[in-house]
C-alpha cells in the first residue's frame, strides 16, 4: 500500500494551485445558478481535473524527483500513486458537481433529464480515458522539457475534451448535429445503459493499461 503514500505526496503539489482549486468550485455554483445544464458543469469540472491533476508531474524538479525516488517503494507504486491521485480528484470533482446540480435543481424546481445524467456519466468515463492517456504521454515525454511544451501537453487534451463533449451533447439534444454525430447521439440515447457499461469498462481497462505501460517506461528509463 505504499502507493497511498505516493498519492499523498502528489497532493502536496496542489498547494501551488490554490487559486484554481478555489475558483473552479465557486464558478461551478455560479454556472448552476445561471441555468447551465449538468453536462456543461460535469464536463467543466472534468476539464479542470485534467489540467490540475498533471501539476505534480510538471512541478516535480530534479531535486524533488530524487527525493521521491529515495522514498521506500517500487516504480510501480510510484506510478500507481500518481494515477490514483488523478482518479481520486476526478471522483471528488464529479461528486461535488452532482451535489451542486441536484441542490440547485431542487431549489429551482427543474428536474435533471435522463439525457443529461447519462451523457454526463459518459463524459466522466471519457475524461478518465483522456486523463490516463495524457499521463502516459507525459511519462513518455519525460522531464526536462520546456515549460511551454509541458503546458501544451497539459492543456490541449482537456480543451479538446471539454469542447467536444459540450458540442456533441448540445447538438444531440436539439437534433441539430451533423448526420454522423446525430446518428451517434441517437444510438447513445437508445442504448444508454449498454453504452455506459461499455464506456466504463473501456475507461477502467485503459486506465489500468496506461499504468502498466507507464511503469515499463519508468523502469526502462531508469535502466538507461
Description:
The mean pLDDT is 77. Helix content is 85%, strand content 0%. It contains ten helices and no strands. It starts with a helix and ends with a helix. The longest helix is centred in the middle third of the chain and has 34 residues, at 75-108. It has 224 residues and is mostly helical.
Quick overview of this protein structure:
It contains ten helices and no strands. It is mainly α.
Q: Give the helix proportion (percent range).
A: over 70%
* Number of helices, counting only DSSP H or I runs of 4 residues or more: 10
Outline: globular
Q: Care to count the β-strands?
A: 0
Question: Nearest-angstrom radius of gyration?
Answer: 19 Å
Low-confidence blocks of residues: none
Average pLDDT taken over every residue: 77
Determine the N-to-C terminus distance: 28 Å
Explain the layout of strands and helices:
Blueprint: H1 2-12, H2 18-33, H3 38-52, H4 55-59, H5 62-70, H6 75-108, H7 114-141, H8 147-174, H9 179-190, H10 192-223
Helix pairs in contact: 1-6, 2-3, 2-6, 3-6, 3-7, 3-8, 6-7, 6-10, 7-8, 7-10, 8-9
Attribute tags:
224 residues; mainly alpha
Amino acid at each position: 500500500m505504499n502507493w497511498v503514500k505516493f498519492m499523498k505526496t502528489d497532493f502536496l503539489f496542489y498547494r501551488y494551485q490554490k487559486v484554481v482549486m478555489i475558483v473552479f468550485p465557486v464558478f461551478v455554483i455560479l454556472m448552476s445558478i445561471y441555468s447551465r445544464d449538468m453536462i456543461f458543469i460535469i464536463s467543466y469540472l472534468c476539464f479542470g481535473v485534467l489540467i490540475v491533476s498533471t501539476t505534480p508531474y510538471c512541478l516535480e524538479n530534479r531535486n524533488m524527483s530524487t527525493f521521491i525516488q529515495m522514498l521506500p517503494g517500487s516504480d510501480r507504486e510510484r506510478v500507481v500513486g500518481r494515477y490514483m491521485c488523478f482518479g481520486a480528484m476526478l471522483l471528488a470533482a464529479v461528486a461535488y458537481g452532482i451535489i451542486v446540480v441536484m441542490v440547485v435543481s431542487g431549489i429551482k424546481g427543474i428536474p435533471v433529464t435522463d439525457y443529461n445524467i447519462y451523457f454526463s456519466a459518459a463524459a466522466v468515463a471519457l475524461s478518465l480515458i483522456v486523463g490516463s492517456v495524457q499521463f502516459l504521454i507525459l511519462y513518455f515525454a519525460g522531464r526536462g522539457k520546456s515549460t511551454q511544451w509541458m503546458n501544451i501537453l497539459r492543456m490541449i487534451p482537456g480543451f479538446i475534451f471539454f469542447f467536444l463533449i459540450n458540442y456533441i451533447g448540445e447538438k444531440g439534444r436539439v437534433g441539430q448535429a451533423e448526420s454522423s454525430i446525430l446518428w451517434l447521439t441517437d444510438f447513445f440515447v437508445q442504448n444508454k445503459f449498454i453504452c455506459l457499461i461499455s464506456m466504463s469498462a473501456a475507461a477502467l481497462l485503459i486506465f489500468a493499461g496506461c499504468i502498466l505501460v507507464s511503469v515499463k517506461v519508468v523502469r526502462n528509463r531508469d535502466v538507461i
